[in-house]
Specification:
The protein has about 500 residues and is an alpha/beta fold. Helix content is about 40%, strand content about 20%. It is built from 16 helices and 23 strands. It has a 7-stranded mixed sheet, sandwiched between helices. Strands 10-9-8-11-12-22 form a 6-stranded mixed sheet, sandwiched between helices. The termini are far apart. The chain binds nicotinamide-adenine-dinucleotide. The site of nicotinamide-adenine-dinucleotide has 30 residues, from helix 8 and helix 9.
């Protein structure tokens, strides 16, 4: 079995604990690699390496030179895309076809921020004081702790590290204990691309050990976190004690709103892929379908017939549409929500349990599931499941759709399906979500800021805005006076 050490200061190093964690292929249900169980000492070693890098070569390098290295990292991602894709599929059961697309997007992240590295500019501010010149400088915030979830580790790594490095920061990454290998393989590529030692470090291990030590470390200035809202809130509290800056990308319970004037065939495809893609293990999953009552029955029939075509199976196979649930705890969580939905009175009209059959090995498949007769006070309508479960709620008016859409603690994403442009704009503005898709769903761009409102997060990733999350602004006032200032302590 392959063994993956910690990556600190440009070297593969053994964990201080001498302990290792198994990493399981969720499709086969068998261990395929061992990762180091990092602890507090390892987190400290990694932060020290990052701090040193920020005072050495990395700080001395011109922004243009930093950008060139980021570009080489983008090239390395593309050159190794097939290998990285296969590793991530083994780690978390994502579809190989989807991963190939993601890898192309990941390289674009690196290219985009490579281009931005030497375009971080300050300003000259025409302040009201005579004989002075006022400037702003944009400086790297410091050492960044980047903690990522298991569902798309390489994508989250790019979304955090590319802007952080472009800004001149150094990073310690803590990937999920369920899917760390692709991040470690990626880190090795950054060294070959010429990234100086210590600029990017990876400490694997448990969230409550390596992760907790990292976020408490006094030399970490910024925490960039992708994960659940419960963990995010805990980290936010800890960060506040030492005034660390935070960016939080958290969970969602996104409404996909279908009006009766929409192109219903397109909407049905958008709804199905929005909840059953990646087996629903997406923060932006459109887990609540809000459909106008005039078309509810007909639209539901359309959804069922499309969902019945979904092929579950080996995530490596191009024939497969939906793979396994990535981890045993997540699988159990989905099963628990199925039971809760039934006992709360929702009516299951498709699926509703574990999927078994030829080719479904490993025991972690869930049938694409649809519940109707869902009311918005039910747990299945309010809580994030992170699995292939769709809840259908009806509405009569635009106002009702907006009210139900917003009546959750989350605000990550939403879909609006309508042929009426005015309505599309009105509803997009009224929905409290960081991203709203109109007549499409699951469309992403490295250029467009994304993130959560309400309990779905803080700050934005992607686009120009992301780089601000890794910068501090400093104001400087220079005196341009020809004569010495008046001494305020002498009476005249
Ligand atoms: P999680 O919160 O359990 O873990 C996320 C990361 O935090 C992991 O690396 C974990 O090891 C670490 N961690 C856990 N406890 C910690 C602690 N006490 N201190 C420090 N670190 C700790 O989340 P998960 O189960 O890996 O991921 C699923 C969640 O992530 C879902 O809620 C999903 O919506 C969310 N998510 C959000 C986005 C987004 O961009 N908004 C994207 C993907 C996933």
């Amino acid at each position: 079995m392959q063994e993956y050490k910690l990556y600190i200061g440009g070297q593969d190093v053994d964990p201080s604990s001498g302990e290792w964690l198994e990493t399981i292929d969720p499709y086969k249900g068998t261990a395929w690699a061992r990762i180091a169980r990092g602890n507090k000492d390892d987190a400290s070693r990694a932060v020290a390496a990052a701090k040193l890098a920020m005072t050495g070569t990395w700080a001395e390098m011109s922004a243009t030179q930093r950008g060139k290295i980021l570009r080489k990292i983008g090239d390395a991602v593309l050159e190794n895309a097939d290998r990285l894709a296969e590793i991530e599929v083994r780690d978390n059961g994502k579809l190989l076809t989807e991963m190939r697309g993601q890898l192309a997007m990941i390289s674009e992240y690196w290219y985009y921020y490579a281009g931005l590295a030497d375009k971080i500019e300050g300003t000259v501010v025409p302040i009201e004081k005579a004989d002075s010149l006022a400037l702003t400088l944009r400086e790297p915030v410091g050492v960044v702790a980047a903690l990522t979830a298991w569902n798309s580790p390489l994508m989250f790594c790019a979304m955090k590290c590319a802007p952080a490095l472009a800004a001149g920061c150094a990073v310690v990454l803590k990937p999920s204990e369920f899917a760390s290998v692709s991040t470690l393989e990626f880190a090795a590529l950054t060294k070959k691309a010429g990234l100086p030692d210590g600029v990017l470090n990876v400490v694997t291990g448990l969230g409550t050990e390596a992760g907790a030590a990292l976020i408490e470390h006094p030399d970490v200035s910024k925490i960039s976190f992708t994960g659940s809202d419960v963990t995010g809130a805990r980290i936010y509290e800890i960060a506040a004690r030492s005034m660390k800056r935070v960016t939080m990308e958290l969970g969602g319970k996104s409404p996909n709103i279908v009006f009766d004037d929409a192109d219903l065939d397109a909407a049905a495809i958008g709804v199905i892929s929005g909840i059953f893609g990646a087996a629903g293990q997406m923060c932006t999953a459109g887990s609540r379908l809000l459909v106008q009552n005039t078309i509810k029955d007909a639209f539901t029939k359309k959804l069922i017939s499309l969902a019945q075509e979904i092929r579950l199976g080996d995530p490596m196979s191009p024939e497969t549409n939906v793979g396994p649930i990535a981890t045993p705890p997540q699988y159990q969580k989905v099963l628990d929500y199925l039971a809760t939905a039934n006992s709360d009175g929702a009516r299951c009209i498709l699926g509703g349990g574990p999927a078994t059959g030829p080719g479904l090995i490993g025991g972690q498949f869930i049938q694409p599931t649809i519940f109707t007769d869902v009311t918005n006070d039910m747990r299945i309508a309010q809580e994030e499941v992170f699995g292939p479960i769709l809840s259908i709620l009806g509405f009569d008016t635009e106002q009702q759709a907006i009210e139900i859409g917003n009546d959750v603690i989350y605000g990550l994403a939403a879909g609006v399906w309508t042929a009426n442009i005015g309505r599309a704009v009105r509803v997009s503005k009224a929905i409290k979500a960081g991203t709203v898709w109109v007549n499409t769903y699951r469309a992403y761009s490295y250029m467009l800021p994304s993130g959560g409102m309400k309990r779905s997060g803080l700050g934005r990733e992607s686009g120009m805005e992301a780089i601000n999350q890794f910068l501090e602004t400093k104001g400087i006032i220079l005196s341009t006076a020809a004569s010495a200032p008046v001494n305020p302590f002498i009476q005249r």
